Amino acid sequence: MDPITLGIIVAIALIVLMAIGTPIAFALGGVSLVALLYDRGLPELTYFGETFFDRIAEFGFVAIPMFILMGAAVASSPTGRDLYRSLDLWMGRLPGGLAVSNIGACTIFSALSGSSPATCAAIGKMGIPEMRTRGYPDGVAAGCIAAGGTLGILIPPSVTMIIYGISTETSIGRLFIAGVMPGLMLAGLFMAWTMIACRLAGGYNNPMAQRAERMKQTVKENVDANLKALVRVLPFLAVVAGILFALYGGVATPSEAAGVGAFLCLALAILIYRMWRVDPIKLIMRDSLRESVMIMLVIACAEVFAYALSSMFITQTVAGAIADLEVNRWVLMGIINVFLLVAGFFLPPVAVIVMTAPILLPIILAANFDPYWFAVILTINLEIGLITPPVGLNLFIIKGIAPDISLRDILMGSLPYALCMVLGILLLCLFPGIALWLPNLIMG
C-alpha cells in the first residue's frame, strides 16, 4: 500500500475514534499501535514502548507541570476577582467598558496562568453574570470571554510555546517574548470589536442598572476597594515579570524559572488570600496533576503517532509533496494556515503542535520564513480552534458557566473574534516585525 493511501486510512481511523468520544491520547496511541503492527509486525512493540517513554523523559518537560501548578494556584485564588474589579474601575467609562475590562482581565490573567481554559473559567465566572446584569447582550458577554481566554496560549508564559520549543529545538525564551506584541495586538483588536459590537447592540451599560449598582457604595469606597484589590494582584504580576526576566536574561532555564514561579505563586496565594486550609491546596494539586498528566500523555502518544507516520514514510511523502509545490511561498503559507486551522477544529493545541511542528519546520525554513514568527502564526490558528466547533473547548466552558445562554448565541458572539484573529494573522504576514521586533531587540 502506498504511503498516501495508508495515511488517508490512518487519518480516517483517527477521526472516527475521536468522533465516538475516545480521548485524544488513547485515539492517537491506539491508531499508532495498530498501524505499526500492520506495517512492522510484533517486534515493533518494543519501539512503541521506548518511543512513548523516551519522549516525555526530556528534562525540559519539567517546566510544563510547574507552569500548570503556577496557573492553578492563581486560578484557584480570588486573584481573577481582584483583577476584574480593578480593571472595571479604570475601563468602565469606555463604550462597552465592562466587556472591554473583561478582555483586559483575560489578557493579564493569561500571563498569570498560561492556560486558556483557566483564564476563560476564572474571568467568566464573574464577568458574564455581571455583564448580563448590566444589560449587555448574551452574545457579547459570552463571546468576549471566550475569545479573551484564548490569549492564554499566546501570551507568555505559555505551555504551548514550551512544547513548540522542545519539539523544534528553538529557544523557549525567544518564543515567549515573540508572543508578547501579537498577544497585545489581538487584545486590542478584541477590545475594538467589543466597543463596536456594544454600540451596534445599543443595550450595553444599561444606565439604570449601572446607577442602581453604583449607589450601593460611595465613590470613595468603590475606589478604595478596587485599589486594594489591585495591590493584592501586583505581587503575582511581579512573579511573572521576574520569570520572564530570568528567561530572557539567561539567569535560569525554563524548568528552573517555572519551579520558582510555581512555588512563589502558591506561597502568595496562601499568604495574601489566607488559603491555610488543606482543601484549597489539595484542589490546586489535584487540578495541576490532572492537567499535567493529560498533557504529558497526549505528548507521548502524539510522539508515537509521529513515529508511526515516519516509519511508514507518510510524513516524508506528505512533506515532500508540499515542498515540491511550485507555488509562491505565501501561497504555501496560506495552504499551511488552512491545514492548521482545520487541525485546530478537531485536536487540542498540544496534539497539533507535537504532531505537526517537526514536520512543518523544515518546510517553513526552506521557504525562508522565521521559525519564531511561524510559532506565533501557528498558535493563533490554534486559538481560533478553541472558539469554533466541533471541539471549541472555550465554548463549552462558557456554556458550563452560563447554561441558560444557548450554544448558538455563544458561537455567534465568538465568531467575530475569530475573524479578528484571522485579521491578526494577515497583519503578522504583512508586518512580521510585530512578532520579531521585541525578541530581536532584547535577545539580539
TrEMBL record:
It is a multi-pass membrane protein. Pfam families: DctM. Keywords: Cell inner membrane, Cell membrane, Membrane, Transmembrane, Transmembrane helix, Transport. It is found in: Cell inner membrane. It comes from the Bacteria. Residues 12-434 form the TRAP C4-dicarboxylate transport system permease DctM subunit domain. The keyword Cell inner membrane applies. The chain crosses the membrane at residues 6-38, 59-78, 98-123, 175-201, 229-251, 257-273, 293-314, 334-360, 372-396, 416-438. Belongs to the TRAP transporter large permease family. NCBIfam families: dctM. Part of the tripartite ATP-independent periplasmic (TRAP) transport system. The complex comprises the extracytoplasmic solute receptor protein and the two transmembrane proteins. This is TRAP transporter large permease protein. It comes from Halomonas tibetensis.
